[in-house]
Amino acid sequence: MSELNSSVALLIQSASLWSQLIKRADSQLSVHGISFTEFSILHCLAQAPLQQLSRIELANTVGLSASGVTRLLLPLEKIHLVEKAQIARDARVSLVKLTSTGMQIYQDALPTLSYCAEQFTSPLTSRQQEQLSDLLGRLS
Amino acid sequence: MSELNSSVALLIQSASLWSQLIKRADSQLSVHGISFTEFSILHCLAQAPLQQLSRIELANTVGLSASGVTRLLLPLEKIHLVEKAQIARDARVSLVKLTSTGMQIYQDALPTLSYCAEQFTSPLTSRQQEQLSDLLGRLS
DNA sequence: GATAAATGGTTGCGTAGTCAAGTATATTGC
DNA sequence: GCAATATACTTGACTACGCAACCATTTATC
Questions:
Q1: Chain D bases under 7 Å from protein CB?
Q2: CA of B18 to C1' of D14 (A)
Q3: What is the CATH number of domain A2-138?
Q4: What is the pLDDT of residues A36-76, one digit of tens each?
Q5: How far is the alpha carbon of B43 from chain A, nearest alpha carbon, in Å?
Q6: What band does B6 get if pLDDT is binned at 50, 70 and 90?
Q7: Domain-by-domain residue ranges, chain A?
Q8: Which CATH number is B8-113 given?
């Protein structure tokens, strides 16, 4: 049973850690008027070629359901951080494109979140941070 | 900017990873009639001395807000997995105590979640899993 | 020992997100 | 070329939270 316990204990500890991290990130990002999840979306779009992705691609990248993406994009469209685009090949897909305003907000918010991430990983040496990054990268 | 990017990219990748993990855990735990968060609560209580904790301690341990704990406990009380208890010293605190039914459900669910955790960490060698556990343990 | 401040907890209200079902378009099998 | 199936969403209804405001009790201050 203590075999079972150690992996499960790690999981539960991670849950607590993660929820605290997200709360802090949300709180710090609120200066820019966006949440962590919204930032994630801006980030994925900013990295994408032409700064655009389909909603399904976006959902897979940020780990949300399709409907979650639909709902999250509504306010972002309303304040013109992203806009819809079509693709001729397939009338089903509705592309999401980062606007220049959206890119601006993203770039403003990037150092804020980066600082937050550093605060969080500061108990680790930079060597350990690399290790952690590497290990997490191997998980799926 | 690519300096900023690497830490932030890791964070966003972790978010996606985490949400997928929780979805899988919830889905597998549904056999036992509980969610991952509910399991977390049972787990914390099972580890605690006398299998009881105050609501605030519980909130801190699982990373929820106080109100989150209040609401989560309601259904658990209703199906008698946990019960309320008083402490004479302080009439404000309301202890939460794991019932024997609750302990049973916890022990039934433990291997399920453990299997889920193993599935998740299976891309890593056991040496790497230890490293990961160690690194995460150092974060707060 | 009365008043102020802190702590433990609950409730109202709002937001984020899920799943199941529906719609529109594309693709496949015959 | 047309039915069947799959894909890309959207919507309705619901759950899971968080925050702010609120009691109740305890502790500190004077």
A1: 7-13, 16-21, 24-27
A2: 23
A3: 1.10.10.10
A4: 999 999 999 999 999 999 999 999 999 999 999 999 999 99
A5: 8
A6: confident
A7: 2-138
A8: 1.10.10.10
